[in-house]
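Deliverable D4.2, example record:
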Amino acid sequence: MNSNFIDRRSFLQGVGVALALPWLESSMMAAPAKTKRLVCFGNHLGFWPEGFFPKAGGRDFKPSLTLKPINRHRNDFTVFSNLDDGANGGHAGVHAFLSGGIRKEIAAGFPEKNITIDQVAAEHVGSATRFPSITAGIDGGTNMVWTRAGVNVPPINNPAQLFRALFVDQDNASRAAQREVLLHRSSVLDALRESAKTLNGKLDASDRDKLDQYLTSVRDVERRLQMSREWLDKPKPKSPIKAIGEAERQHIEEMPLLCDLLALALQTDSTRVTTFEVPISFRTSELNVGGYHSLSHHSKAADRLGQLQKVEKYWMEQFGLFLDRLKETKVFDDTLVVLGSGMSDGSRHSNRDLPVLLAGGGIKHEGHLICPAESSKRVPLSNLLLSTLQWFGCERDRFGKSTGTFSPMQLS
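Output generated by the structure prediction step:
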């Protein structure tokens, strides 16, 4: 073990993160009453299906192996069987989990360029919060978040960087420099927009469509710049935890710390939309397992499957603790949490029958909801995503491959 390695327990104890401190409500900036929040958790390789899905449906289901770590929350979540959007792209279909479509389908009927539900929700929030959305994760994430312009949003994988963004105010010189950058970018966008307008009357229908997509991208950038200007001089909330130091790692063991920071971001109303991503592979210093990707190709070998279950148990334990944080800070009932993946079974590279779980949101949960498995009766995952957006307050009647809202479960 080299000298640069920092034991996780020593690291966490040294920086005094939220896991080691009580949650002190009096020190927090309270979010407005009835503020709705959206959280999305996703991983690249799904979950071992035999361990994820309960055998029986309804509220009295016996918890599956993978769901045991969150069984204390069983009255506050719903597991869905037989949901997907018909993708068949293996690893290339993973990024469609929150959008309803894979990249090759964009040209055929996806005018929003694979935008994901978190980014639709972020547009709805606008400049009401400092950050329209926050994407965090391990290493490079899993390409789970996409803007309206078809641009992937990579996750913040450094806890210290996320802490600074949430709680550390910039000095005057830094703010002045950032203001100058924003003004320069804005002037460049103005020039690009004017140039595009002069071209519009000289183009055929195909080129006008391309230009319209380009202007949509410009408007998206302008919107984000405007939000940055509005919040540049507003002080950030006071942190209830000590400053987090730098760590030269991007291990899966960073998940508890990043999840705590996301919970704080929601509680302080720094954002109302967050995502968390686990990539196809990651480093680990504590779990004592092989490579995550190779373990997903277990071929039902007992030793490899046992190691994969170890990873998935850790994943769900941290997810359960995150739900604990939301309940402790009294934002759980106003926060809808979506957990799942664009891949159902890493061993077969399958994008069908995805593992999907919905928690919180103040809705009446159904335990294990078994949707129709027959091809002619299947319910698109996009229907559930559409209902999630409507719960959040987004007024729209379509999303991805939706055929309507998710009727088996009323989200209101």
